Structure formats: structure tokens, C-alpha cells
């Protein structure tokens, strides 16, 4: 089963870390990515640009309107994702629990990806 691990964190938190802590954090990410690649569980993933570069489209006055930024109430922003193919939701959650952003106030959302037939709905 494929799972999308959505990375939520506080924008700019890495700039608050010491160089040593930042290097360690990115080293942990590299280690997890290497392990997932070697195990064949990694399907893909990508970090997202700073939220200040985001545009959101919403319906306003009956017409789509483009506005700057995500401007959510939450201090956390969607920062990136991983797609993994693993045996169980528990394994996907185990991978997410190791993601270092979680220790710095972020969160990982684990969502099953529907197959093309959409039978999971």
C-alpha cells in the first residue's frame, strides 16, 4: 500500500538552530531517505518552497480568486511530502515518527493513497 507522509513544520525553524544542530537534522533526513531507498519503500518526495511564494485559489463572489500565501490560522505550514510503499499503516507511521521535524514542533500526517479504482472511499 502506498502512503503519503505530509510534512508540516513551522517555517524558518531551521534558521533558529545552531549550524551543528541543522547539520545533524539534515543528516537524519539523509539517513532516513537512504534507508527507504535501499529497502525499496521510497516512491518519491519533495520539499516545498517557502510559504511566502505560495498562491491560493478560492471561490470569492462566485469566481476563482488568486491570493498570496496559504494564510492559515496554524503556525505550521505544509513543507513537503514523502510517498512510501510499505506493508502496513503502522510501518508508514513508524517512518513518519522518525522524521526529525517532529521533534522541533512539526507534524507528519500519514495518509493512504487511493488506488485508481478509488475503492478505499
From TrEMBL:
UniProt similarity note: Belongs to the YciI family.
Family matches, as InterPro entries: Dimeric_a/b-barrel, YCII
Domain annotation YCII-related: ranges: 1-115
Protein name, per record: Uncharacterized conserved protein
